[in-house]
Design a protein that fits this description.
This protein is mainly beta and 238 residues long. It is built from three helices and 13 strands, in the order αββββββαβββββββα. The protein has one domain: Lipoprotein localisation LolA/LolB/LppX (outer membrane lipoprotein receptor (LolB), chain A, Clam). Helices cover 9% and strands 45% of the residues. It has a 13-stranded antiparallel beta sheet with strand order 6-5-4-3-2-1-13-12-11-10-9-8-7.
Amino acid sequence: MFTFLVTTCLLTATDPSALLARTDAAANRAKDVVLELAITVESPGAERLGRTVRVWQRGQDQRLVKFVAPARLRGTGLLMPEAGQTFLYLPAYEKVRRVVGRDGAGSFMGTGFSIGDLARTRFSNDYTASLVSESPTGDVLKLTPKAPDGHDHAALVVTIRREDALVSKIEAVDSSGKAIRTLVASDFRTVGAYTVAHHVDVLEHATGRKTTAKLASVQFDTGLSPDFFTERELKRAP
């Protein structure tokens, strides 16, 4: 989800590894970002749910995610203090635990986003890329997990905008190529020196559940300190 972020460069490489590296760089071009998302979840035959999530990110390796609303989820958070580490905090238990393997797969807090979606700052650490197709407007990569046991999908099929190297679509597929979940980013706008998607839809194909995230606010290059990304800050109420 949060790889739909920042860019000012033009993508020209067709080598899949280089393409993926450029995409990761484009998504993390700002020194840091602070944003808030208004999330709605719609399931067939069920009441619509609302969520508010706040995100702080510094560089490519540090991220903090906190639920602000509703009240019962307030303070629930994820911390990525460095590459390859993810920690979960549930206020009701007042404990921080490490997220490993398939703990990061599946729906998180009643949304179509997984812990892996919310924790991911770049693809290249976890996936090997192969080129599916090229066009004047965009390129498609197939991303195969380097550690398959840690994922609920066999691959990701990722569409990358040629104009700015930002991801516009992520389709998680099973071993037969059948879609499990589809994420679509849209409403790309320029904010200061950067381009950011203001709307993301997630469709879970088996259940028909749809999650929509709208960018409520965003600030770039705020001067976040690396010392902000600690377990102490994770447990602090938003």
